[in-house]
Predict the structure.
Amino acid sequence: MPELPEVETVRRGLHDLILKRRVASVWHDNPKSFPNAEHDVAGFLIDSEIIDVRRRAKILLIDLSTDYTLVIHLKMTGQLVFVADTVRFGAGHPNDSLVHALPDKSTHVSFEFKDGSHLYFNDQRKFGWVKLIPTLEVPDIDFMKKVGPEPLEADFTASEFAARFARRSKTSIKAALLDQTVVAGVGNIYADESLWGARIHPKRLVSSITKKEFEDLYTDLREVMNLAIAKGGSSNHTYINAEGKKGSYMDFARVFRREGLECPRCGTTIIKFRAAGRGTHICPNCQKI
DNA sequence: CACTTGACCTGTCCGC
DNA sequence: TGCGGACAGGTCAAGT
């Protein structure tokens, strides 16, 4: 599900909602969703206090006062939703946008805090996971060692962006954009949206992309991701933020999931096909091979 | 090493 | 209404 803007939206919400709360208990129903040693849970999660909520690429990092960290990947359908009160729902309640109370059948991990509030990890497809790891060991995780730079960092430049693609020169630009070791956090939505912005066909070989095109792609990727964060991310039927609310970026999408509609730049009908193994949307007039 | 494909799961939608 | 197949915002382990 979530790409960088959605994970960042969840991070910001969690930061406001769970900082300084103390963990009372944890429940799970699936070892793949929560594959942690019992003695670590008992010794370093229970009774710990949330001291920070960070993000790297599409991974959330919830730091605990015990020098352990909850490392969380939402994959396709994961959600982290904070619920202050599981009893009363309805108009005016902070979670009134939820169509039903949590936990539900997709809840696979649940944290209860000392004040009675809960953090639910819901995951329809069970690809996501929550791992409890010593904070100092987080950088040693294989993914963390190989993941590329954060594209929205102020000191990340267009020339650095272009240089990252060097070792993926024989694949398509879309496959390379989706490769987390090239640049962190890009997924299917923002790959299509940024390629449309830069007028690049997703099947173009990386080796054929000009310096100017890399500069345009860099600029548009940052613009589109910053806009998406400002709009609270993109929501399909599975994505909601930490308060249970949907994001509105899809109201601003130019090509993603808009096949059959007009290109907002030239009016040509947007088409969908497969590229890099993923559903891919382009304007066939603006983006040519 | 670089690249592509299948697998991991569950739910939904679309055509017969 | 039922059934089969494709597909869904991600990544990893295999295969070539």
User: Anything to note?
Assistant: The beta strands of chain A are 23-28, 50-56, 59-64, 68-73, 78-83, 107-113, 118-123, 129-134, 271-275, 278-282.
